[in-house]
Amino acid sequence: MRYRWVTVFDISQTSGQEIDAPKPELLEESSSRLDSVATCLCEIARRKGFEVDFIPLENANGMTDFQTMRITINPTLTSSQRAKTLAHEVAHAILHSNGINSREVAEIEAETTAYIVMARLSIESASYSFPYIANWSKGDMSIVLNVGERAISASNEILKAMHQLSMRNFTEVNANANPAHNQTALSYYDYL
Questions:
Q1: Rounded-to-integer distance, Cα 37 and Cα 188, Å
Q2: What is the model's pTM?
Q3: Pairing of the two strands 51-54 and 70-73
Q4: How far does Cα 59 stand from its chain's mean position?
Q5: pLDDT tens, residue by residue, 146-166
Q6: Is 15 exposed, middle or buried (0-12, 13-18, 19+ CB in 10 A)?
Q7: Residue 128 needs a FRET pair 20 to 30 A away by CA distance; which of 22, 111, 136, 164 works?
Q8: How confident is the model at residue 26 (pLDDT cuts 50, 70, 90)?
Q9: Torsion over CA of 125, 131, 132 and 135, rounded to 10 degrees?
């Protein structure tokens, strides 16, 4: 194995215009599968005591209001962005119902949780989640590393609830023996 010498510069040794922070790219995919994921996440929010509304929002994809116990999602989002945003807002409901110490940390925890949930469901969300996390962390990797345990715990809670909902739907549908309903129940189950 060979190595070669290269010149490396520290940021303090450079000059020029500031580089713009990366911007999250809205997810574009839409499908009935993603709609089913969003429906499941709405049910989890309801079980946590939150109503879910779909109301146009300016400058936001979603928001969680702990005083009114409402999660609001922008209805103009694609299925994939809606599901990812719901996972983010459900993460807030799980992680921050007792308050937050830092808005930055809360946003990083929620988005990390949403990314893990989406990844587990084989839904690509890195083009949105990574820049979102980078912007809220302002490049401080220690913040990102410190949220890992809480984000994993919240994502496991969400995924477990999704699995339980899919099993309940599967059992209820099979009891009805309606083939059209069986397809719906299996579509929930197939994602988990």
A1: 7
A2: 0.81
A3: parallel
A4: 17
A5: 999 999 999 999 999 999 998
A6: exposed
A7: 164
A8: very high
A9: 170
